[in-house]
Amino acid sequence: MAERRKRISLCMIVKNEEKHLPGCLDSVQGIAEEIIIVDTGSTDGTIAIAERYGAVVIRSGWERDFAKARNLGVERASGDWILFLDADEQLDAATKSQLLDYARHDELSALLLQIRNQIGPEHDQGSTIHPVLRMFRNDPAHRFEGRIHEQISFSILRKNPSARFHLTDVVIHHYGYRTQVVAEKNKLQRNMELLELALAEEPDNTFHRYNIGVEYLRNNRAAEALEAFRIARRSDGFAQLSYAHLVLKYESLSLQLLGRWEEAAAAAREGSEVFPDYTDLWHYIALCSASTGRFLAALEAAEKALEIGAAAARYHTEDGMGTFRTAYLQGRIYEALHDEQGVIQAYMTTLRFKPSLLPPLFRLCKYFRTAGRASELAAVMARRISCPDEAAMLKLAGVMVASGCPDSAIAYLEWQAELYKEPSLRSSLAAHAIAVREGDYGRLPFAGILSEEEAEDTLSAAVHWRGRAEYFLERAQQQKKRSAREQAIQNVRLLLPGYEGW
């Protein structure tokens, strides 16, 4: 008789999650045989939704203690394993079945899953990635600890110091830190209040100190964040902490937000000596070095980041570090140096990493336009970018038009029309070229986005940052009295890749 797979119980705590809960529970179908939900006071349809999915619902008052609420559910779970999620999280359809295989391994005590925190409204608009313990063996000794950012690992290791934690490739998509969701739930204020309470109870707790630093960053309180991270860094046994690499990264980020670029570069370099394979730190070295005019050092650091590639699974990282985001930063640096071949190569590398990205296409168009070389743009695009179908060609032509280069779009479409032998494709491309020549842009993507000021703003939620940066970028390029080095520093500094809307 085939061995029955180990049973997995899903344990959750929720409150007023009718909008997100169905997506979460749909994602665990076929994985969790039991669902235990602790509701801390919902007044919407959350409980009805949970019961519709067959969940056991435990009604409980909110006592400002996440660990206590989670343990109420764990105590009722009957599965061999416990998986815990929040309502605004979903198991990734492509990787979730791996949990069933891992549940058969008796030597494992807990599993770390890869959390992808989605930032923008769409998947392509950026995410951070980090491993988090989210599944563990059901044992009476295994209980959560911590009023906020509750942890299960301490009790597991207390029961079995040699417990084996396995890092998996299973992905959880987390949507709770999208701007709209954060605003709706007032998460920042809630987290800050609980962390301040937890820190008052345990003033020497390094984990609380680190987490309050993160919340300070989210609240745009960079100076207080910096102090928190530096206190955490001075704690005993700091280097052995699982989040030590993040403390070092966020120390540099805090300094960047304060405009202390040289100190930020130094902090990132110190971090890279401790974690030499942590891509994000090398990317930060490149960014900070460029922002102080040390362009050779910046390009060397960017090359190092690209050589390492995406950070290893044990690190918290941002999507694109060591790949498209770093290559894009290289392009910005080469722009500042007026290195045409470097600009083209860097942005083409960016597109090889992620062909769907629009910012590098717009930057290429803008670079040729502001350099007075828009007439060469069509040839460069045709030679260097392979478009698999007509839709991709029209998208590229639309980018040219939206960037203020309609003549380039016409030349590109006519070029492609002559290149392809298939009659209907040739006819369609030629018709689009004629329409653009006559001033009809309605058939192209980004139609109607014609002004130079508006050309890129439709691509990102960060409209303010794009507009502000582009205004000063143009002004810096036009001010002949400033030295080339001063202009270059200004050009790199003003539009950081983090504001591209990824």
Topology record:
Layout: E1 8-14, H1 21-27, E2 34-39, H2 46-52, E3 56-59, H3 66-76, E4 81-84, E5 89-91, H4 98-102, E6 110-118, E7 127-137, H5 153-159, E8 165-174, H6 179-185, H7 187-201, H8 206-218, H9 222-233, H10 244-257, H11 261-274, H12 279-291, H13 295-308, E9 317-318, H14 324-336, H15 340-353, H16 359-370, H17 377-384, H18 390-402, H19 406-419, H20 423-437, H21 463-478, H22 484-494
Parallel strand pairs: 1-2, 1-4, 2-3, 6-8
Antiparallel strand pairs: 4-7, 5-8, 6-7, 7-9
Major β-sheet profile: 9 strands, mixed
Annotated CATH topology of the domain at 8-182: Spore Coat Polysaccharide Biosynthesis Protein SpsA, Chain A
Please give the CATH class of the domain at 8-182: Alpha Beta
Structural class: alpha/beta
Organism: Paenibacillus glycanilyticus
Pfam families: Glycos_transf_2
Domain Glycosyltransferase 2-like: 9-131
Protein name: Glycosyltransferase 2-like domain-containing protein
